[in-house]
Amino acid sequence: MKATVEKIDKNQVALHIEVEAEKLEKAINKAYKKLVGKINIPGFRKGKAPRMIIEARFGKEVFYEDALEFVVPEAYAQAIAENNIDPVDQPEIDVEKIEQGQPLVFKATVTVKPEVQLGEYKGVEVENKPVTVTDEDVQRQLETMQKRHARLITVGEEGEAQVGDTVTIDFEGFKDDEPFEGGKGEDYPLELGSNTFIPGFEEALIGAKVGENRDLNITFPAEYHVKTLAGQPAVFKTVVKEIKRKEYAAIDDEFAKDVSDFDSLDELKADIRKNLEESAEKTREQAKQNDVLEKVVANAELDVPQVMVDKRVEQLLEDYGQRLQYQGLSLDQFVEMTGQSKEDLKTQFVPEGLKSVKQELVLEAVAKAEALTVTEEEVDEEIETMANNYKQPAATIKKMLLSRGQIDNLKQSILLDKTVKFLVENANFVEA
């Protein structure tokens, strides 16, 4: 096999490939064996007609299409390997010559990874923002715990609903004096101020008393997901059946005993401060990595092929759909509720997709420039970590990755992480 490479654009090449006549002949014969059982020739039992008889009847080209399916992928794979081509999309195949007894000639046009011109990547200057945890931060955490452990007490008939109260209501919505679908609820608990209902609904219940009937005049938002209600006025007839209010415990030693394993408030505060400092330190380390990587990418020059961005956007959309499923919502339901289309969502992911692809390409270039590699020991260590997280034997995890062809992906992930660490270790941090 012969192959030459022609650069036709920044990120596109054409491989001119010539396959030996002998290999083409083997592929044609393989195609004959595949198809002969489906061809009926008078005078021959089905599947027994000789190849030359079939070709004489239907033309020699009868087996070319299937023969190409056998020979082209193998030849293309060999050509890109021999010429160190790194494609990022499926090739466009153009058969230029196919004839029995002659070499097969075809052209494969494909988009490839862009060349990355690295700028400064070692010693980039980044601010090292200090970690500070104040008494106010500790107090806010205590107040959050206080709210989490609040008791709900029932408000008497004379009490009025306030922001933060949970009211139990019956309600039914009417548009033009007619009830509409989905606008009715019974014994519905609603926390006033939670902003979970249509704008204006919760505010209209402030001051209500138990047993009170209220007509709430509400206008649906213009972007409301039900088109027949979007921007339309409606009346919700409501009955307040119960009001419950949060009662907070005093933040003292007894509170500390109730909400933690500590015997005093001072011990609880010290533990909160320690946890906040550890969290802040992790956040700072992540910020340092992000800042270093952002500068290194900004210093590099590269032209990202659109196909790479499109693929990354598809991946981001798929990941987003999986996160929605954890919340009991499908991607189709989400776009319907928000009045968007999947194309709208894709557009929103484009900046993130472009940034992600750029970072990966630059990191690969740095790893190559610094001859960074991944050892089998590092792969095994990562598999061990995964095994501990999933509470599965490491051998089981490794077998799964091998069966799915994901070992190379794992190595790539380890290499990128290793490269980020290298960049951080070689950055110049200045105090903010």
- The CATH superfamily label of the largest domain reads Trigger factor, C-terminal domain
What is the gyration radius calculated from CA atoms?
Answer: 33 Å
So what's the overall shape? extended
Number of domains: 3
Number of distinct helices: 12
Any idea of the CATH topology of the largest domain?
Answer: Trigger factor, domain 2
The CATH architecture designation of the largest domain is Orthogonal Bundle
Give a count of the beta strands, DSSP E runs of length 2 or more. Answer: 11
CATH class of the largest domain: Mainly Alpha
Averaged pLDDT:
92
Q: Write down the secondary-structure element order.
A: EEHHHEEEHEEEEEHHHHHHHHE
Question: What's the N-to-C terminus distance?
Answer: 60 Å
Low-confidence stretches: none
Beta-strand portion reads: 15-25%
Class by alpha and beta content? alpha+beta
Helix content: 40-55%
Reported for the largest beta sheet, the result is: 5 strands, antiparallel
Function: Involved in protein export. Acts as a chaperone by maintaining the newly synthesized protein in an open conformation. Functions as a peptidyl-prolyl cis-trans isomerase.
Main location: cytoplasm
Subcellular location: Cytoplasm
InterPro entries: PPIase_dom_sf (IPR046357), PPIase_FKBP_dom (IPR001179), Trig_fac (IPR005215), Trigger_fac_C (IPR008880), Trigger_fac_C_sf (IPR037041), Trigger_fac_ribosome-bd_bac (IPR008881), Trigger_fac_ribosome-bd_sf (IPR036611), Trigger_fact/SurA_dom_sf (IPR027304)
Structure in words:
By secondary structure, the protein is of the alpha+beta class. It folds into three domains: 2-111, Trigger factor ribosome-binding domain (Alpha-Beta Plaits, 2-Layer Sandwich), CATH 3.30.70; 151-247, Chitinase A, domain 3; 265-431, Trigger factor, C-terminal domain (Trigger factor, domain 2, Orthogonal Bundle). The protein has helices spanning 21-35, 51-58, 64-82, 135-148, 253-259, 265-299, 306-326, 331-338, 342-369, 376-390, 394-403, 407-425, and strands at 2-9, 12-19, 92-97, 104-111, 125-128, 151-154, 166-175, 178-191, 213-219, 233-247, 428-431. Strands 6, 7, 8, 9 and 10 form a five-stranded antiparallel beta sheet that branches. Strand 1 (2-9) and strand 2 (12-19) form a beta hairpin. Helix 6 packs across helix 9, helix 7 (306-326) crosses helix 9 and helix 9 crosses helix 12. This is Trigger factor.
